Amino acid sequence: MADSKSARRDAERAAQALLENTMVKAAGELGAASATRADATVGVDSARTRGAELISDAQRQADQLVADAQASVTAAEATYAAAWKSALAAGWTPDALTNLGHTVPSRPTRARSGRRAAASEPSSTDASGESPAEQDGASGVIDDVA
C-alpha cells in the first residue's frame, strides 16, 4: 500500500505543480495584457493631442495663405487703379478704356457708421427706376480713382 499512497501523493503534487504553473502563466499573461492596454490608452491620448496640434497648425497655415492671397489682390487692385488713373491723365476716357475691355476700378470700401451710411446708401428706386444717387447725376462710373 505504500506504493499506492506514494503514487497518489506524487500524482497530486504533479497536478498541483501543473495547475500552479498554469495559473502563474495566466496571471503573467494578464499582467502583460494590462500593460499593453495601458500603453495603448496613453497612445490614444497622445494621438489626440498631436492631432489637435496638427489641425491647429494647418488652420494657421490656411489662414496665412488666404491673408497672403488677399494682400496680393489688394496690391494688384491698387496697381490697376493707379494705371487707370494714369491712363485718364494721359487723355483716355473711361468709355474708351471700357470699350478696350478694361473695367472701372472699384473704390476701396471704407467702414461707415451711423446716420451718414444710412443716408448715403439708397434703399429703393422711384417710379422712374432711378435711385436717388442717379437722380442727383451720379452715374456710378468712377472717372478718377485716388
From TrEMBL:
Superkingdom of the organism of origin: Bacteria
Residue ranges of the region described as Disordered: 96-146
Name of the protein described by the UniProt record: Uncharacterized protein
Source species: Motilibacter peucedani
